[in-house]
Amino acid sequence: MTNSDSIHDQKINSLSTKKKILTSLVAGSLAGAVAKTTIAPLDRAKINFQVRKAPFSYEALLDFLHSDYSRYGFRNLWRGNTASMVRVMPSAAINFTSHEQYKRILNVDRKCSTPFKRFLAGSLAGSTAAFFTYPLDIARARMAVTNKSQFGNLVEIFKETYKYEGLRGFYRGYTVSLIGALPYAGSAYFVYETLKIFHRNEKKKEPRPIERMIYGAIAGAAGQTSSYPFDIIRRRMQTAFILNKHESDLGILELFSKIIRHEGFIKGLYKGLSMNWIKGPIAAGVGFMTYDILQYFSRKTYVNIFHQ
After folding, report:
1. Rounded CA separation 135/174 (Å)
2. Contact status, residue 92 vs residue 34, Cβ threshold 8 Å
3. What is the pTM for the complete model shown?
């Protein structure tokens, strides 16, 4: 690193908290959009397997994607992605930004290594994002498991949900979502930050973009695996009123018990996990890498314009 680069980084680090929050919000929202759009067809397929009793296999996955494409066209593979963007962009923005602020508040890895605080900052960031964007997650899940004849757009889903389920419908499955967000976000951020720290200590330099993507992919796999059963329960509760009305009044423990009893522990609670090991790491890797790059360059651009 040259002396000029060092001075530049000092100026970036000296930006006010407000300016850091604004640049993080922009970088986070764009990173979330890029990551989610990349794996949208696989995400749509995953949700459809999660909420139905049919067992998952890669052959069934290919059949679903081929059938969807043949019947409704190529664009339908991204059905629900608009609703997903409405949720993912603010969710990712809040997630990344709050994580940075929780790290600052908790003094994560400031004077010494603090693994527990590293995990806690990630968990708090995930739970914060989940609270503010959950109704949009409900809408996205319901769009993914229906076709245009049932719900034409996001507004129709909100109207129907409120009409038949009231405000409660927008937070169906929220408790299990919050429970799942804690280990997922905690594990993902913990692994990603730990790998970056290890890289800096070993190689004495910042990770390159491709290395950040690899570390993010590993972090995503860890997060997905630690919280996947909660994701199954969340999706079943979110879509029960549409697909399985007899499950719409079941609580978390009752639904856990029913799935294990009728579908088995592994086949029921971990259905589609192998597909998630493909799409999850891709999304996480792209998301972490894109955020780090956009955050740095947005702050660098601000410094170049206003701090010359």
Report:
1. 9
2. no
3. 0.77
